Amino acid sequence: MIHLQRREMMFGLAGVALAHSMLGRVGMAMAADKIKPGPSSALIVVDVQNCFLPGGSLAVKDGDQVIPVINRIAKDFDNVVMTQDWHTAHHISFASTHDGKKPFEVIKLPYGNQVLWPDHCVQGTDGASIAQNINIPHAQLIIRKGFHNDVDSYSAFLEADKETRTGLASYLKERKIDTVFVTGLATDFCVAWTAMDARNAGLNVYVVEDACRGIDINGSIAKAWEDMTKLGVKRIQSSDIA
Ligand SMILES: [Zn+2]
Fold this sequence. Notes:
This protein is α/β, with parallel strands linked by helices. The protein contains 5 helices and 8 strands. Helix 2 (about 65-75) links the parallel strand 1 (about 40-45) and strand 2 (about 80-85). Helix 4 packs parallel to helix 5. Zinc ion binds near residues 120 and 146.
């Protein structure tokens, strides 16, 4: 019995060696160019919720197009975290909460400038649900953010007051995850702030461009890429992932 297992193991190793030699230089070079997420990598799927999809109250243009890309690459990850914008009914980030204010105006709050948004992702509503077509049954954590009435939270790590933490950095650290791949909506707000705070938490960070879509207020997508790049966030495409 033991002998048989040893023989099988030896044949197995020989098989691997043969496959490598058959693949040759081209095969190995192709493999080397791809980024392979390992056990210490996590995919972060940011806010792919009904309100941010076409037809939603804060629709991101072509936001639904990220879904098949995210579903496809999620298969390459052992670890997946999803985020959910999760606001109170009269959240401070809603224009409707402030007399005479319209969506996309900017106001000053104690923690800094706040863009005012149409009502979106109210706790427990259909709009706040994660898109039905997201198919990642092996996702392990859904982290909700923006649930404090008086503070917004674009980032999955740190609320807009830059003090209140969501706990995600500690969760990733405890699970020995040192690299994250960020996807979702919207590139210039929740994705960018999540990616930058991940860098600030000491993680290696990739943003998968074709798995994200942006809102783009006065060039905010270009500015977000500039800010992310300065912090060492790497910009990749889904085809770069093995
Ligand atoms: Zn929000």
